Amino acid sequence: MTTKAYAAIAADSPLAPFSLTRRSLAADDVHIDILYCGVCHSDLHTARNEWRNTLYPCVPGHEIVGRVRAVGAAVQDFKVGDLVGVGCMVDSCGHCPACAEGEEQYCAETFTGTYNGPSRPDGGNTFGGYSQDIVVKAGFVLHVRHPEAQLAAVAPLLCAGITTYSPLRHWQVGPGSKVGIVGLGGLGHMGVKIARAMGATVTLFTTSPGKAADGLRLGAHAVCLSTDREQMKAHVGSLDFILNTVAAPHKLDAYLRLLKRDGTMTLVGLPAEPHPTWSIGTLITGRRQLAGSLIGGIRETQEMLDFCAQHGIVSDIETIRMDEINTAYERMLKSDVKYRFVIDMATL
Length: 348
Description:
By secondary structure, the protein is an alpha/beta fold. The chain has helices at 41-47, 97-100, 151-154, 160-170, 186-197, 212-218, 229-233, 253-256, 280-284, 298-311, 325-333, and strands spanning 2-7, 16-21, 29-38, 64-71, 83-86, 89-91, 112-113, 133-137, 142-143, 178-182, 201-206, 222-225, 239-244, 259-267, 289-292, 317-320, 340-344.
């Protein structure tokens, strides 16, 4: 079936209207009419081949919410009319240890991305959510239980939400935890909201004085200007966990020193260039840990969506038309959005 979309044809070309063919509905598939799609920084990295792995043409978009149009004969968990979501993955090998444990994002054979494939079993390029509809294996479709009026603001939870929720859960953040969130962008603002809802005492670290009020509004108990040595010094050795969401190269030592003994800083931002080397001494003198985390598995993503629905958490968004996507990319590079662009797919 043919569907309308927006695609990048080359790294140096703007996104433009594109027609693609979705596969026919298989027995275990769900056909979804896309209502909204969030705009992730990964979309820009991929469209412009900044990670050197893009297959063209490229239709980005992995923060998808929509309504079920049809289901395959073997599908039992979804029905026509359901509100659903699709995140960063649409398939995995299904048999490696990670997949068996519900951690498909760490699939030993590499999960199939919602866009920029390669898809299984044919190896073709997958096309994402900057499109009218999508066909996805039922095991990679999520139930959305937020009110329908919040649907646009739910879309970024499918990437920004799970990317921050998963490490907070893995490192057992909860009541009594003292947590630092580095950066207040698409990821950071979700980290603040979710950590606060988990019961943690949350400190936001930002280089932007103008974001202090917003950080407090979003749920931070305190805001520290990370360019101010005295403010940073006041937090040395005080934090159990730091979620570092910054996707640009920066010095990590200043933040590692804020951790208590046995504290962990987890990186979820993936810069195009490496971070400067950090001091091993900062790690060994406090038995501190520097870690990374990648989205979350399907089971945990559903858990995250249900947690956010229970606590009334959605993303702060600016809705755009599909034909505004290239301008949105340029604004995103300037951090000129609070805090996530979401495309209204009715405009396509």
